[in-house]
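Progress note, project year one: complex with adenosine-5'-triphosphate.
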Amino acid sequence: MKFYKKEIAVAVAILGLMVVLMFSAPGYFSRENLTDLFLANAPVMIIALGMTLVILLGEIDISVGSVFAICGVVMGVAARGGSPVAISGMAACVVGAACGALNGALVAYLRVPSIVVTLATMVALRDGLRWQTQGAWIGNLPSGFQWMGTTQSHYTVLTVGLVSLLIVLTALGLRYLRIGRAVFATGSNRAAARIVGIDTQWISFFVFTLAGLLTGLAAMLNSVRFHQIPSNLGLGLEMKVIAAVAVGGAAITGGSGTVLGTVLGVILLGAIGPALTFLGVSAYWEKAIQGGIILGAVAMNVIGNHREKNAADTDPLPN
Amino acid sequence: MPIDTHPRRSLLSEPLLKARSITKSYAGVQALKGASLELLRGEVHALVGENGAGKSTLTKVITGAITADSGTLEVCGQQVARNDPSISRSLGIAAVYQQPSLFPHLTVAENIALALEGDGSSWTVDWKSRYARAKELIERVGASIDPRRPAGSLTMAEQQIVEIAKMLGAKARIFLMDEPTALLTDREVDNLFQLIGRLRDEGAGILYISHRLEEILSIADRITVLRDGEVIACRDAAEVDRSELIHLMVGRSIRSIFPKREVPIGDIALEVRNLRNGSVGLKDISFSVRRGEIFGLAGLVGSGRTELARTLFGLTPSDSTILLGGKPTRIGSPTEAIRRGIGYVPEDRRQHGVILEMGVAFNISLANLQSVSKWGLINRDKEDDLAKLYVDEMRIKTASVSGVAGTLSGGNQQKVALARWMAIHPRIMILDEPTQGVDVGSKSEIHDLVMQMAERGVAILLISSELPEILGMSDRIGVMHAGRMMGILSRQAATQSSIMTMAFGHACSGV
Ligand SMILES: Nc1ncnc2c1ncn2[C@@H]1O[C@H](COP(=O)(O)OP(=O)(O)OP(=O)(O)O)[C@@H](O)[C@H]1O
Ligand SMILES: [Mg+2]
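Model obtained:
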């Protein structure tokens, strides 16, 4: 952990992929393709930041895909109703935070396991949305909806800026903010964290709410790219996000993981799918290969962990 | 077992266990530098040394929990080529590790059964005999713990007893005990020693690690001293005395063990009146602690001392009134307790104390982040300075302040847990077994630090299973039994026997 072993492993995998592509499919590195890739993965990246915090706490949030869909639809409906983009965007964020807060309250204060809570909200929110929209897409958006009329390249620059800012803030926050400490302490050992006066319930509530807020923000950024909003947005998004965080080396049991790892995880998983298409791999194999890579990366982490554990054997055989 | 299948005469004089030139290094630390040890039949062999000397590492090499870098291991004259915990168990080696490692969600009986039944047992579970067996083994250690309780609900001392019971149940001839008594009180220790005596008479070999030198001198036949991973000496216990032993371990002489100094006693800092807490079985407890006073709490394992500490700290809140500086206060959570100037070093350092995955500095600053941060932003340099201060002052053996706490030796982890709470400069300090697992040298340093706190006017509540520590440090001593305060003795009136009488539940004419 000290020397970012896991992160380096993922970075090496990314580099390897790039080298292969460089020789066999240079078209991959065209400007349009890279921009496209980035824009498609920006929401994943933002949600993964929130998920990193949730996983550091030793919890999980599988409702992000449904929350993402609701936020997108809310934004579209608000915009169609005549609100300015900024206001509808804010509405998306507020709804995201509210969903997160609901998850957080149930997990923190009613002590329901997060997998149960977010499974329930995932299904309930998704079905509620389907019932409300009857599966219809949100169209007829005002003309200014696509990012206040700015051109696509402006949008890209803005998104790059925003995503980078969020990454840096999350990383610094975890490292230098007291609340960052509290997240690590709670995720590593809840009882010990409580004894040093950390309000572990509040921390859980806060982190889930923040994750919801980030999901809303991601939904907003995603929506303004299109002139229609599908109501089945974000299907399977939770798996993408969780896989990226896991590939990035965060321990599902909490207390260990880095923002850098998550960023690399998102890049690796985001880059691979299209790369396979570029390399001419049949679509049938694409998912299987992707799965194999996730498995490989996670296995590498686990093996690395075991090595460390054997050296450190802090568990299960204590001093 | 090799000895049964090849009964050769010469084997009988062979040592049970021979470890030769064992080396083991961790990233940056050489824990063992060619240590050798022989364990004979029918002997209690004590292993002593400072915190971090390599004692636990050596036991773990013997049980195969870790693999040595080099060196050989022989059991009954047969070389052990490959070792792991199940192989060592089949060779007749049973161990109690320094820290209990029970499955918290399984019951006591299941934990014991898991360790003992293993292979060869039938397909079905005979619950009745499981419970009976668990009960019997625990009674042999001289305790009574309901075998149906989940292990996670036991106090550390009770868990330690279950670990000992587990070890006793194993069919073994080599017993390794790594600080089995760190949390036990006299009664349980006496029982354990009788058991050890019986095992020795049956021809077993016992390797016994402890920092309580009185115990070592009373039970050991031979003593091996480790220092910095090397064997410094191996002596007959009859040949050495306490001070020589200390000198061998530490390489220097230690001042008095209990540096009790007279401190002006101030106003009442903490007062408890008729405290009850049904959920943890506390009844009608009244006492007070003044500024500068050290109030000792004695009692047997399970008498409610830790529960009282947890109640005062808001972990298991009660409705009873607690007066802080004369003002009635309700402490509903640790956050509130800390805000009111109460510090608490818990008994169970792995569950509640140090966060093992995190660094030393992270751990030391954790309860006191506001002193190293501004507007919620942590100043890492300041944090490291704070940690360095305590690492130096308490002589915590670690490669650096960012070293992972879980890689420190047990005693050094304990010092980290203490440092964290010293750093908050509390007005009232609750210390639950503050010197468990700490070596003699550091123990006297910790006692000195506690005295310094008292001199600064901190009111101290000291829980210890080690009577000499309680007697040596306390101004007054409260003795608990079954959740009640049996009486409070003054420093002058307290003796080992008066405390023990009360601890067994007999009222005593105290002061
Ligand atoms: N997993 C590990 N990683 C790095 N260093 C370790 C690890 N385990 C032990 N050490 C180091 O090895 C040395 C010996 O540790 P060990 O636990 O054997 O000491 P000990 O004699 O049992 O001490 P104590 O009396 O405090 O229990 C210490 O310096 C410790 O920090
Ligand atoms: Mg040890």
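The first helix of chain A runs from residue 5 to 24.
The interface with chain B takes residues 1-2, 175-179, 181, 184-185, 188-189, 191-199, 255-256, 310-319 of chain A (CB under 8 Å).
No further modelling is planned for this target in the current period.
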